[in-house]
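Appendix B, Record 12. Input sequence as logged:
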Amino acid sequence: MTKIEEESYPFIVLSINELNVPGSRYRIPDIVSQIEFDAGIDTKHSIANLLRKVLSLPTAERTEQDVRFLMILFKHTQFYKKNCRSWAPHQVCDLCKVMTYKFVGKSMPLYASGSLAKYAYILTSGKLVEKSERSSTGRTKAGTVHDFEISIGEVVGSISLEGMMYRINTVIASYDSDLIGI
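Logged structural output:
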């Protein structure tokens, strides 16, 4: 197992105990029944596969159990801890209803500068590189491109959350990458 694979989906490890309690077995039985909790590292992989499956469903086809499952996992992400702790449960629920799954193959772009900024993304697996004309201090210099690594757990494309309509940089996968679109 590579270091990237080991570090992938860190919030799942934090969610396993909550998914395995009687309350979760009662509230989301169809989801919990698909998880083999005594499988070691395979438990994380089976939950990750289930997460990708649920996030790939059209929002209209997601069940209440699907959304509750997403809420349990989402509250263990760094994004939630940094930005959403003060939200009411219905606000978290509304966000989880519209989350999406995105896969970007190695060397492929997630998005390009100038493209429409529809989603921000949480990197759950892999690694991305942001290519920007802006330096880490925010300064620009014509013809100079700066590379910034985006690691697992970080948010990319947050400019869309700030109301900007277009991307101001390009992001390319340096490894096969899984993302949650928010």
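The CA atoms of residues 103 and 115 lie 18 Å apart.
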